[in-house]
Amino acid sequence: MGFSLIPKEEQFFDLFDKQAAVITTAAACFKELAAGAKFDDAGIERMKDIEHQCDEITHDIIDRLNRSFITPFDREDIYELAHELDDLVDMMFSVSKRMRLYKLEGNNPELVKFTELIGQSVRCLAKALGSLRHSKVHKPILVCCIEINRLENEGDHLRDQVIGDLFDKASDPIMVIKWKEIFEGVETCLDIAEDVSNIIESILVKNA
Amino acid sequence: MGFSLIPKEEQFFDLFDKQAAVITTAAACFKELAAGAKFDDAGIERMKDIEHQCDEITHDIIDRLNRSFITPFDREDIYELAHELDDLVDMMFSVSKRMRLYKLEGNNPELVKFTELIGQSVRCLAKALGSLRHSKVHKPILVCCIEINRLENEGDHLRDQVIGDLFDKASDPIMVIKWKEIFEGVETCLDIAEDVSNIIESILVKNA
Amino acid sequence: MGFSLIPKEEQFFDLFDKQAAVITTAAACFKELAAGAKFDDAGIERMKDIEHQCDEITHDIIDRLNRSFITPFDREDIYELAHELDDLVDMMFSVSKRMRLYKLEGNNPELVKFTELIGQSVRCLAKALGSLRHSKVHKPILVCCIEINRLENEGDHLRDQVIGDLFDKASDPIMVIKWKEIFEGVETCLDIAEDVSNIIESILVKNA
Q: What ipTM score was computed for the predicted complex, to two decimals?
């Protein structure tokens, strides 16, 4: 299937650009909360607003998908893409809520580092999504995908190191339970970004 | 694709009605066990029987699906619907088994409240499934879907409140581990019901 | 769709044989590490190499799938099959890494037992995958699938027993957290094997 420029198809690209913009905002807000030790009610409320915006765009994409006969690439891939991007914002929101629920201080250097990795990954993701319109030009998209995979690997190592430390120094099991969940949560954000990157790569192959 | 009344297709609706009936029984039994502090061998055996019945119906649906050329709605949606409904019963069974394994008393007011929310959600689900035969009449189905989403939100808040309390009052980390898992399990039941509701909504849109 | 013998289709069967061989190696290595208390750097490195080999074969299958017009069975089933098999090796690798991270001794009799169950399940899986070439002959494949399901059930019981013991004897919550995760991890390996078996069964039905 080729990439035509029928306006109807263009609308999918516009919606993915909108979703990419919301995810970028979510990652920036998440990093700000982590760096500023601000997982307070106001901070959670901001994350919630962003999560809600993302929900609406996701809903728009699925709705349009269900009503469209012609799509710029495989129906199933559009569906997966929209849902995984939504999951990514949900996960950042979810971790933020748990930080507050567990009354954990932000300003934890490893947590800040993780939100930076997520920020970098999301930046690559937004770039790759934006380039899907011109998906015949593979090179710049693939460069983004490789970087997203590298960041996921870096996150894997960081999580293992942090969780190893947590258990080695463990005096309070309650703190182990709390922080283990938080660090597995932020690493999952990088996993989801990698899932999105895999979907994008398979779209490229199919449309080669 | 329209909704014809070919008997072969009708059989799918009959099977989903059967599955809805089993899930209703599962939710009633689950609530009874929670309210009566009865996660004993006899109670678990009852849940197991119900779970087994649900397995058989799910298997029937998938088997029929694999053998059918014509289906009342998208093959993929029927598949997802049957599996998610099966997952819902599996989850109730799973939580019940963990209650016994962890030697936890039922009669916990928040657990009872959760089984009530699940009961309400399942009632809406059964109604929505039963209305799929007449899926051109969207309104009553959508009312059910909205209520299922509302119940999932209520469950989210309840889980956060219960888990927050658990950690605030935590003296025994072992009890925290046990109850945290139980409450995340019951909330997952409401999440699965919401997933089913989302599938039903997308079926409506595709057949509009 | 029938099973033709076009070489292009044969290549999928060859790749699944290769994937089956790698999974067999992974299960053997995993069992050896568990039996020999050797979750040390060298052991993890061996698991990592195997996981990497599996990644490459999975990538080959998906790539070939995206480029093929004709496939020996449903595109979606090939995709799911390759991914679930990859997940199985990932899970064994993941549990191995956690054993080292948590500085847990292997030589735990229940862990050894689990790696034996996984070994048996993987043997059945390899046999079933190898028989897909001759998928008109259902009987030997179904015998494998039934055995895989039986092994998953055995694993379920073993996990419940081990986790029950863990909590009954719990003095150190940190050890409960560590071992609970390990035993849920090994049980998940058997779950994934069962998922693969279910996909194989549905391939049989569709091609009956």
A: 0.87
